[in-house]
Amino acid sequence: MAHAPSTSYRLKKFLRRNRLHVGAALALVIVVAAAIILSVWNQHQVRIAKAQGMRQAKILSEARRLVTEANFTEALQILRPILESEDVGFEARVLFSRIIGGDHKHQESAEIQAVMNKHYLERVSYYTKKIQTDPADPNNNLQRAQQYHYLNEKAKVRADMDEYRAILNPPKGTAAYDDRLRSLVTQDIHSEILFGAPENLGPTVNSAYLDGIADMSSDGLELYFESDRLGGLGETDIWVTKRRTMADLWEPAVNLGTLVNDSQSDFGPCIFRDGLALYFSSNRSGGSGGADIYIATRITIEGPWEEPVNLGPIVNSSAWDQSPSITADGLSLFFGSNREKAGTVYSKLCYIYVTTRATKDDPWSEPVRLGQAVNPGLAYDSDYPSISDDGLSLYFRRLYTSEQLYSGERGLWVATRTSVSDSWSKTVYLGLRGASPRFSADGSFMTYTSRAYGGYGNADLFQVPVISMTSKATFDGQADSLKGSKQNDNGREVVPKQD
């Protein structure tokens, strides 16, 4: 009797007869299996990438927190590994550049420097395209100048800043200048001083942090200011930037060092006209209260500053005394203080005071609060005074606590008097937002700090050209020819000023 075919024989026979179908089936199985494996792998990679992105986002968030606490060293350390991240790399590089700023002495590895330089060049390309698209927007030149500053391209920084200023304040004698003049005389001008457009002092001075109250030397070649940027000794330090001539760009700012700055906050500098005395405020230990006014001196302009001296309990109070401004003769010192508002709901607001002395060798007198023209009342904050060289104009910032007051009054003001023995009378809003106004010796421009006009950081330093310091009526008379024409040289309609 014949044996039945074995299972293996039958399988081989089946495969020979159906080898094409079997091959196709096996191929399909392999493809499906591969697809499943690939899908699982991709999902796994996505989960890994997502988890990595979340970790890197947390690192970036932590770095931002460290920056707010001025822990820049640790922030840089945790940022370095994520600078080329596909998820947060751009934000990390932006923060990294903000921390190190334009400090060309800051040392990084060649690899990190290459990554950052590539980033700066990409930002240059970005702003170049924006400039080409909208050449009338000066902010693009300002931002590109910052990237060139990071790249240490000084000539390109200068070129961008020149173009930035030319757009904001066209040169006299050009059609654009005439347009600017017409726009001024057709406005309801409140101030007797007519200003051009505020100009950011640029990336060699301003940082990504607070660059605040400032004062300029009488020759216009040194600018002292407060900042909480990287490289300081305390919460806020006093820095100085210099330039060789009035036509040159400001050089990168330098910290005044341990002879002036302390581990606490040092701020509100005022340089005396001879350049040998620096008044400022500090909340360092050993003072009379929250913050006191100090003076640091030096023998020569090139010499080092000596240890600051507290002005003593006659001038300083147990409250907050700040932002000194001294007259050209050195005999009157104006400053802001909350001494009479401490303990009230307005304790964070200031009045402006003045202390005097008969000679530079005499002690300062008991400070006197200025009258209502400057200090209207408890609800007003009058602060950051700046006295003119002739002592007849006092520039200051005024704020009001009520939001119902129109925003124009929340800015820079000037009070005037007919002689130094008279009381302050007329006060006029200058039409600018900011603090610590300081005029150059020749009166051609004013420097001040502001958050209202954009820039690089929490607050930047600006200068604004002074177009006219004549009276408004006189200026209106000089501009009659401009106001009377219905069209300017470019054929644009000019609306005459309404009285």
Q: How much strand?
A: 15-25%
Mean pLDDT level: 84
| Total strand segments | 21
User: Which structural class matches the secondary elements?
Assistant: alpha+beta
The CATH topology assignment of the domain at 193-469 is Neuraminidase
Helix content: 25-40%
The number of helical runs is: 10
Superfamily at the CATH H level of the domain at 193-469? TolB, C-terminal domain
Q: Can you tell me about this structure?
A:
Mean pLDDT is 84; it is low at 402-409 and 471-499. The protein starts with 6 loop residues before the first helix and ends in a 15-residue tail after the last helix. Strands 1, 2, 19, 20 and 21 form a 5-stranded antiparallel beta sheet that branches. The chain has a 4-stranded antiparallel beta sheet with strand order 3-4-5-6, with no helix packed on it. The protein has a 4-stranded antiparallel beta sheet with strand order 7-8-9-10, with no helix packed on it. A hairpin with a 5-residue loop joins strand 7 and strand 8 (277-282). Helix 2 (19-68) packs antiparallel against helix 3, helix 2 (19-68) packs parallel to helix 4 and helix 5 runs antiparallel to helix 6. It has 10 helices and 21 strands. With 499 residues, it is of the alpha+beta class. Among the domains are: 101-168, no CATH class; 193-469, TolB, C-terminal domain (Neuraminidase). The longest helix is centred in the N-terminal third of the chain and has 50 residues, at 19-68.
